[in-house]
Structure formats: C-alpha cells, structure tokens
Design a protein that fits this description.
- The protein has about 650 residues and is of the alpha/beta class.
- It is built from 21 helices and 22 strands.
- The chain has five domains: about 130 residues, Rossmann fold, CATH 3.40.50.2300; about 100 residues, 2-Layer Sandwich (Beta-Lactamase); about 80 residues; about 160 residues, Heat Shock Protein 90; about 120 residues, Response regulator (Rossmann fold, 3-Layer(aba) Sandwich).
- The strands form four sheets. Strands 11, 12, 13, 14, 15, 16 and 17 form a seven-stranded mixed beta sheet that branches. Strands 2-1-3-4-5 form a five-stranded parallel beta sheet, sandwiched between helices. A five-stranded antiparallel beta sheet has the order 7-6-10-9-8, with helices on both faces.
- β4, α4 and β5 form a beta-alpha-beta unit.
Amino acid sequence: MKELQYIAVIDSDTRQTQKTIEILEDFNISARFMQAHTAIGLEKILEREDIDLIILELELENYQGYKTFKTIQEVAEDVPILVYSKIQNEVIISQVLRAGALDFLIKSEVSGKQLARAVRNMPLRHQLHLSLASAKKDLDLAQKRSKEAQKIARFGDWTLDIVTGEMTWSDTMYDIFNFPIGTNINDREHFLEMVYFEDVPTVNQFLAETIKQGALQETIFRVNNGQNSFQYLKARAKVQMFDHIGGLVVVGTCQDITQEVKSQSAIIAQHLAGHGKKLQREMLSHLGFNVRTHLGSLINLFFLFEETVVSNEQKGLLNGMKSSFDDLNDEMHQFLNSTIVLADNLKVVPQQIRLRNFFKNLQSFVLIKEKSELQVSFPPVSQLPDYLFFDGDKVQQILLNITQSFNEISSITDKPIHIRVDGKKKNANHFALKISIHIGIFFPFAQDKTIFSNPEAFLAQAATHPTDTETADTNLAVAARLISWLSGDMNFKTNAKETQITFSLPVAVINEEGAVNSAKPLYPMHILLVEDHIINQIATKKVLEKWGDIKVDIAKNGKIAIEKVKSKAYDLVLMDIQMPILDGIEATKIVRKSSNLPIIALTAHASDDEKEKCLNAGMNDYLTKPFKPKELYQIINRTIRQFSEKGA
C-alpha cells in the first residue's frame, strides 16, 4: 500500500488550515503538508509536487458546496479527495460522495483521532475506489456490447386504432412473428391469438393501461415460435393524436429479446467471476449495505401507508407500487444471495418457520412468478412439527431454483410439479426435514454429474463459459451448494417417465409453547431506537407504535444513546451499527459496563463477522436490514421473553 508523502490542505481559513495540519501531526501522520486557499493555489502546488491526498473544505472564497468539489476535482484529476468541512447539508454530502469523494467528515462531529484514522485509510480506500471504478468500466463495456448486439435485432412497429381496434404492422413485425409479409392481421383479437395464452391477461392489461394513461407503457410477453420454445418480446407503446386522421391511435414497438433474457444472468456471472474473490467481497459488502438500508426504509413505509385511510385509486396505486417493490426486493435478494454463494461468503440465518404457511407462501410466489402451479402434500399433522427453526430464505431459494429448472419443461408439457414434505424426528429438539420435488417426465438437463457432486467446480466452469451452460443446470448447482452449506444432502434421479430431486436438512424443533407470537407486544414497552438515518427513524418509530402500547425515544448516535440509557429506564434498545460520533458496537460495550438491558442490533451488513462483533460486544440478538415489521416484532418478543426467563 502506497505511503502518503504529500498532502494538500485546501481551506480559505488560514488558522483552520494550520489546526488541521497540527491535529494530523499530533496523531503521527508523517507526510509533508502543503497549504492552499483557492483552486489556483492548488494548481501551483501541483506544478511542483505529486500530491497523494487533498483534504478539502467546501466553503472557499469563490466557491461554495458542490461547486467547490467539482472545481478542485477538475484541477487535481486522479488525486483522491477527503472532504473535511463545516457543511452539514445532507443533499450536498450525497452529491459530493456520488461525484467521487472518498469520504466526507463534518468538522463539528469528528474527533482528531477519527480524522487521522480516515487519512491513514485513504490509500486503501483509494485503491478500492480504483478497483470498483475498473469493475464498473468493465461492466459498462459488457453492457454496451450487449446493447450493440441488440441493435442488430430488428424492431417492429405497429399502431392500434382506439375506436375501431384495427392494427397495422411494419414489415419487421411480420419477421419477428415469423409470418409472411402482408399476412392479414386485422385487429387486436388477431394479435392476441398469437400471444402465449398465459400472457394474454398481461398484454390486455398493457394495452388497457396505455389507452387509459396515454403515457409510455412497457411490458414483456411470450409467443410460441412453433419449435416447442418461446420468444420473449418487449413491447412499448403510448397514445398519440394524429390530426390528419382525426383520432387517437396507440403507437408501439416490439423487440425480440429472447437471447437477452437467456444471457443476462450469465453475463453478470461472467463479469463477477472475472475479478478476484477479495474484490467481490468488498463490492458485495458495499452494495449489500446500501441496498438493505434503503429497502428496509421502503418496507416500513409501505407498512405504514397500508395502515392509513386511502381512497380506492390510491389503494390501486399502492398495490402496484408494492407489486413492483416485491419484485425488486426478491430480485435483489436472489442476486445478492447467488453472488455471495459464488464469492464463498455465505451467511446462514435460522428463523422461526411455520412449515405449512412457508409452503403456502411458496405456492403463491411460484404461481405469480412462474405462472405455474405447485402441488404440495404433507403427512398427518401428528407426524410433522408445526414450528421449525431453519434458514427459511436459503431453503426458499433452493426450492425456487429447483422449481424454476423443472418449470422449463413443465411450461411446455403442462406436467404439474409435486412437492412432498416429510421428515423424521431425531430427538426432542432435532428433526430431519425431507423435501421431494417430482415431475412426471424425463428431465433433459443435469447431465453433468458435478452439478450435484461438486457444485463449486461446476459453478466456476459455468462462470468461465456462461453461454455454454443451461440456466436450469446453473440453478440446480446453486441449489446443491446451498444444501451443502446447510449441512444437508441431495439426491437426483430421472428416467423416461419421471424426475425427482430429494434433499434433507437438519433443523431444530420449536414447541408450540416456545413459538414466538408477533401479533402484539408481551407487555407495554419503552424502547430506545438508536438510528442516524432520519427516514429509518420515522418509519421504525411508527411501525413500533402501530404494534401496540409502545413508547419510542430516538438517539441519532451511540453517544446520545449512552446518555439516555443512564437517565431513563428502557425495556429494550434497538441499536444501529454504523453511526457517526460513536458506533453501535462501541456504545454497547460502554452500556454493558453498567447495565444488562436487552439490546438488539439492526444492521445492513449481513455477514458472520458482523454478527460475531455484535454478540461479542454484548448484544442479545441481531436483525439484518431490510426486515419486515413482523420480523421486528418477533425478535423483540423473543428477546424480552428470554431476558425475563433468565430472571435478569
């Protein structure tokens, strides 16, 4: 790692500049410091020396805020910039960080020790920043190439008369649908006859919304290409007024995106595989933190919105927003989990699961996502525990990967997919959960036995040659690796008449008395919420107050939290981890010196290391963002009950 030899401190206040330098020298930052008050002064320094780091105050004589940063950035291209400023405006902070600042420290909120630590970390952060920029450049190039390839694919355009329902097609539309040019496509009904029957409601809704809203709408649907497979088409349309015909017409395009749909996940996997595992972990950790933080806010806000009185129109809009958000949440969750598997950084998080509800939700999910029906069967109630303790997210992904693979032939043959849930009790607290997925037809994929015997090797090979790998095989290999991580075993068999995958997992049994109910608080509570993100403060506070007789106080950092714990009697603390002034880990260590008050960590970092840090600091439990209100209620009741049972 490169040593810092020359540091330029840019501040219009000479005394503040000198104070900054003295602080860094007091904390043994061994570099040569240079001062400048303007961008011109910095230019003169750069003519003489190669600067390793710029420490920048945003309030200069001729420039203020974001404009200051952009001016200095243009003068000192490629030199890392640490902003150390009096400005506390969150909009400016966000703009500057997005524009490329490696860190933003507010003078009134950081100590000299924190400033020195930030400066020492700059070379490593700069190297990571360059690595991420390189990775982004590679990904942008891959996406650009993909878009260039899509330009080669023909676009078709069409019009639909709103009054008469008559349609007109361009020549390329006939090519896309594999029809001779001039084939009689008179109206909307003729068009819908060519759409795959399961997607007809989607296309009808698309046309109806286009006519209703007038603005640009978009959808994806399938047509059968006559070769026992589908073409995926993307349609876009909006309403236009044509004066020469005196009426409103829907004007639209269609694009064949079949290859894009099939290769999109493979391109992403190939890109990630091209970088070292260390860089993958850094990128995914950074991405996961930011994504989970904001998804957590949205989940809470949706929950609160549902609890308010809304009109029917607003309810419809809310349902649409929720549907889109659920899709996004699911896709991001699966993306993060899949890439964590490939990055060899998988975290197992057991949860309390009510088994029949778990599979009922899975059936609904598959029906919506895959347009196919799952048939699930259970043994008699007496033979299967109602509540089990296992990683529901990972088991759901295993089942989704397997059912998605089976659905590639189920959607063509209309053969149903059966799931049989069974198991065997090992002792009072442990249960071997056995799940079998069956379809009554030969499965043409999974010919490579390493999918099940050595999924790591198969996934590595698939990442190197993604276009040679069937999506179904990749799904099964990811499922096999997840099962291995959960200490389970997996069996695959197929013949001319049927195919079956069976896997078993060791799980814990929860007695009915031990199951934690989240319907209402165990008793009226006074809770301290320690959170620096203002949206999370508002949303989480209201979510808790909606739950029942809950009073919530807020502390925006660990230092304030310690003062509040000393002055008031709280039943429980919800502690964010990453905060200014004093983080959640250090705050908990200080609280533990004088109190055994229950503390639950709320963090956006989903890693075993993070969990271990929280528990070692003295926290009672750990909840990863984004979380649903029910999950928050459940962990609060469980923590309070465990705390009471210990007689604390």
